[in-house]
Design a protein that fits this description.
- About 50% of the residues lie in helices and about 15% in strands.
- It has about 450 residues and is an alpha/beta fold.
- Helix 13 (about 325-335) crosses helix 15 (about 355-370) and helix 17 crosses helix 18 (about 425-435).
């Protein structure tokens, strides 16, 4: 059975208040009553009502004054005001105060019922929007893009803002950070999602062939051009062209690319026919293009044409909280649902520098899954660089000893590091540390008391 809606009826006229209460109880509402604005505010402070129906003119505080206070106390609760002295001025004042609607006495029962139903529908719609926003804020993924760090949440938010735009986007970041995944996510969350997404790695194709790949060519345009070929710009028409590692493109080809982006049209190599384009261009690079511009290796005008919307993907070592969700996603991608990573294994992975970023992490996960026969893979299953594994803890302890740091402080720092890696999960942290969870609570309480 559905929970009845909670309605508060406010009126200093006893007969009117009781009549309205009876009307709504007959319609399945759970009705409370208040004989004054002051009493209504007291009831609203102790109870959460779905809607409030109140007279405007009452002894003491008016209904309009009450609305102002309720907006501070219960901003999500709609208030419907009623009066026997209806006027345009009263209606305007009521709405300015924050009332949902305004009705005049005398009124037909169906009319006031309809107004209350509309107020409830509005409240439910606003609550649903809040639930969706909270779900978006909590999510650790957007399509294939995964992360829980503040940096990744900012990227998720930016993608949602720009996905439906046609503006160019320049995605920067080290190799392996997932720049192409960002580009695909932008495309498939936008209005071009049903149109082609065409990626090309500008460093994977010899310079002499890249122009033909991008713009196409006609038969006989150069030696070996035995047939005409459609370029990737034409293939992506209506959709998205992703230029990966655009920073490595030659200056000559940069100039030709700039002309296509400016004119929104393309002409194949050796041809005369021009094709109008409706293509969104997303580009990515692991180079510092501003430095490349200063060195005369990248055109400044092309940079500004591509860098309309910049998105930077930080390296994985700067966002260790993204390692566990990424690792779990890679396990799911490369195995069945029965395989998992132990908490110790996740902590171990989170502490690793990952110079190759997410690509290196995925390789490590795939290798561990292939080599281990256990359902749960742990620290010993990851064949990480021996030097990386040994130098980190040794250097930390050596630094602590060199700086004469007390053992208690070293323990506190280590516990804080593990808590950060586990995202504040005390159960998981206790398992890694080999202590009881209550010990962590006691240490935290002691630390707070000393602060």
């Amino acid at each position: 059975m559905m929970t009845p809606k909670q309605l508060l009826v406010v009126d200093d006229d006893t007969a009117m208040r009781e009549m309205l209460a009876s009307l709504f109880r007959d319609r399945g509402f759970a009705v409370s009553e208040a004989a004054s604005a002051g009493e209504a505010i007291e009831r609203a402070s102790d109870n959460l009502f779905d809607v409030i129906l109140s007279d405007i003119r009452m002894q003491g505080k008016s209904g309009i004054e009450m609305v102002g206070e309720l907006r501070e106390l219960r901003p999500d609760t709609p208030v419907v005001l009623m009066t026997a002295f209806g006027s345009i001025d009263s209606a305007v004042e009521s709405m300015r105060a924050g009332a949902f609607d305004y009705i005049t006495k005398p009124f037909e029962p169906d009319a006031v019922l309809l107004t209350i139903e509309r107020a409830l529908e509005r409240r439910e719609l606003e609550e649903e929007n809040r639930r969706l926003r909270r779900a978006v804020d909590r999510t650790s993924s957007l399509g294939d893009l995964i992360g829980e760090s503040p940096a990744m949440r900012e990227i998720f938010a930016m993608i949602r803002k720009v996905a439906h735009s046609s503006s160019s986007v320049l995605i920067t970041g080290e190799s392996g950070t997932g720049k192409e995944v960002v580009a695909r996510t932008i495309h498939y969350h936008g209005s071009r999602a049903n149109q082609p997404f065409i990626p090309i790695n500008c460093t994977a194709i010899p310079e002499g062939l890249l122009e033909s790949e991008l713009f196409g060519h006609v038969r006989g345009a150069f030696t070996g051009a035995h047939t005409s070929k459609q370029g990737l710009f034409e293939k992506a028409n209506g959709g998205t062209l992703f230029l990966d590692e655009v920073g490595d493109m030659s200056l000559v080809l940069q100039g030709k690319l700039l002309r296509v982006l400016q004119d929104r049209e393309v002409r194949p190599v050796g041809g005369t026919q021009i094709t109008k384009l409706d293509v969104r261009v997303l580009a990515a690079t692991n180079r510092d293009l501003q430095t490349a511009i200063d060195a005369g290796e990248f055109r400044e005008d092309l940079y500004y044409r591509l860098n309309v919307i910049p998105i930077h993907v930080p390296p994985l070592r700067e966002r260790p909280e993204d390692v566990p969700p990424l690792a779990n996603a890679f396990v799911a991608r490369h195995s069945d649902k029965s395989r998992t990573i132990s908490p110790e294994g996740l902590a171990h992975l989170s502490a690793f520098p990952w110079k190759g970023n997410a690509r290196e992490l995925e390789n490590a996960i795939e290798r561990a899954l292939a080599l281990s026969e256990e359902a749960q893979i742990g620290i010993d299953d990851f064949l990480l660089s021996p030097n990386e594994k040994k130098t980190q803890p040794t250097s930390m302890l050596h630094s602590a000893a060199q700086n004469r740091i007390p053992l208690s402080e070293v323990e506190d720092r280590y516990i804080e590091e593990v808590m950060q890696i586990t995202g504040g999960n005390k159960v998981q942290a206790a398992k890694i540390l080999g202590v009881d969870r209550k010990t962590l609570y006691r240490r935290a309480a002691k630390k707070n008391n000393c602060a």
